[in-house]
């Protein structure tokens, strides 16, 4: 499946940031994801094979939240 392949590539490319705690499809630019009772804006972007990977690194421990968005 296309999504699974791209998700795996994104995980490999973001591995240096730490272990992801959220992943999924984004339905809008700069997606917001729930984290510890609040919403976190994913403001950083990386492109993988026509997809945007929106992510954010939280705190000193390097917690990474990210979402995928298909680009046309």
Description:
The model has no long low-confidence stretch (mean pLDDT about 80). The strands form two sheets. A four-stranded mixed sheet has the order 1-6-5-4. A two-stranded antiparallel sheet has the order 2-3. The chain is globular, with a radius of gyration of 11 Å. It has about 70 residues and is α+β, with helices and mostly antiparallel strands. It has one helix at about 1-15; strands spanning about 20, 30-35, 40, 45-50, 50-60, 65-70. The chain contains one helix and six strands. About 20% of the residues are buried. Strand 2 (about 30-35) and strand 3 form a beta hairpin. Helices cover about 15% and strands about 45% of the residues. It has one domain (about 1-70).
């Amino acid at each position: 499946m296309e999504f699974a392949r791209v998700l795996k590539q994104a995980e490999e490319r973001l591995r240096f940031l730490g272990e992801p705690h959220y992943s999924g499809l984004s339905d809008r630019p700069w997606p917001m994801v729930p984290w510890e009772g609040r919403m976190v804006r994913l403001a950083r972007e990386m492109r993988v094979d026509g997809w945007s990977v929106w992510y954010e690194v939280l705190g000193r421990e390097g917690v990474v939240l990210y979402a995928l968005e298909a680009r046309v």
